[in-house]
Amino acid sequence: MFPDEETRLLDSVVRLKSRLSDIIETNFGLLDELLSLEVLSHRQYNKVRAGDKATYERSEAVLDMLTSEQQCVRFLTALQRTGQQHVANVITQNGGEN
What we know:
The chain is an all-alpha fold. The protein has one domain: Orthogonal Bundle (Death Domain, Fas), CATH 1.10.533. 65% of the residues lie in helices and 0% in strands. It has eight helices and no strands.
């Protein structure tokens, strides 16, 4: 990833939030990866997992917690590690515009 591409990740995540929340799968290891990569703190992890939320609600909660480019880079890694390369592609390709 090139430096100027990296600086656009957070903007892309914010802009594509609605679309991303529909395609991110949080139930099969993503949250654990985000915790291990220190994208989420233990408190944030527990907050996302708490209650009876729909998958898209968990996804939205995770996306809301991304506040830096570094977190976004780690988020992409977590997506790749959990078999969600297609979601990472949506983000890095600016929703298909690149």
